[in-house]
Amino acid sequence: MLSPTPVSLFCALLLCLPLAVVFTINTTTTPPTSSSDATGKNDKPRNINTKTPIFSAPPPPPMIVPEDDKSLFRVAARVNPKPSPPGAAKKLAFMFLTTTPLAFAPLWEIYFNSTHPNLYNIYIHADPTSHYDSPFQGVFSNRVIPSKPTHRFTPTLISAARRLLSHALLHDPSNYMFTLLSSSCIPLHSFNFTYETLIRSKKSFIEILKNQPGIEARWAARGEEVMLPEVTLESCRIGSQFWTLTRKHARLVVRDERLWSKFKLPCLHWDTCYPEENYFPTLLSMRDPRGCIPATLTHVDWRGRSDGHPHTYEPAEVGPELILTLRSDRPRYGDEETNGSVPSSTQRHDPFLFARKFSPDSIQPLMSIASDVIFKD
């Protein structure tokens, strides 16, 4: 074998030099660019004092969401019961169930734009048979989930809420609390106040009332003893259809088949059929009463009403006094035996965070007091 000469070694070195330069250039690393560098905005939300660092985790691989409800609920029930990834900021999931355009979108825009977008998600269930004057815009753009028709006095409202919960569970593993709202709801406080109130809670806020007038008629609305044996009259509960659930309870709702097999049956007596006001409080009362604060944080005025509709606030009623009055009211708590782990109702005064029912044309007086009253805590 011929030994390499100094000249041949020098020529080989010259031939390899360009490759070494190219390799060095292509493998040079640069420090990751923070979202603050990319957007010119600070990652820390305004006015929110949180010890949890706020960052965007790498997006998960695309998930094929089933179109049929049964498969959708089954897949959603298998998500991680704890918010993830570890160290990420917990998020609030705002779920709007509507059959009309969102008349209060301008007010909600101010609400959501006052904070960091990494602290919340929005989901909309919009009845596809209804007419919407214009597409959902701003923070509501592209937030409508696959929706189906909804009707009063039917279990379709339960299905819509379960659909919203399923999509919220599957969409973002950081969703921690899940709030159901209607198109007639408004916020009573700033986003920061709402976030701090809900994130520090380890329990759901859902009205769970026992021995209410008319409970027997509601229980028998599908026929005498049809609800047995899954739901006895003694275990049936009533409560507001608007609630805030923990991630654990959101999974519990979408996973349920036992109670749903009864509540999904059509009613024979429509005038006593309000399944969305019975299913959720009954389910959670039976499965995890100690994990609930038995009250809703959405204010509503039922005084003097007997037609199944709460009082609707008209423009002439809207002003600072109304907002302050709604804030100061105390939620109605379920009986203490419904929730043995919660202090006596006389010791609690959780703040109302939302309110209904407001007429669409009350948006102007609401906007006029938004900065100085509604969002001033």
From TrEMBL:
Keywords: Glycoprotein, Glycosyltransferase, Membrane, Signal, Transferase. One of its GO terms (molecular function) is glycosyltransferase activity. Residues 30-61 are annotated as: Disordered. GO terms for cellular component: membrane. Residues 1-24 form the signal peptide. It is a single-pass type II membrane protein. InterPro entries: BC10-like, Glyco_trans_14. It is found in: Membrane. Pfam families: Branch (PF02485). This is Glycosyltransferase BC10. The lineage of its organism: Eukaryota, Viridiplantae, Streptophyta, Embryophyta, Tracheophyta.
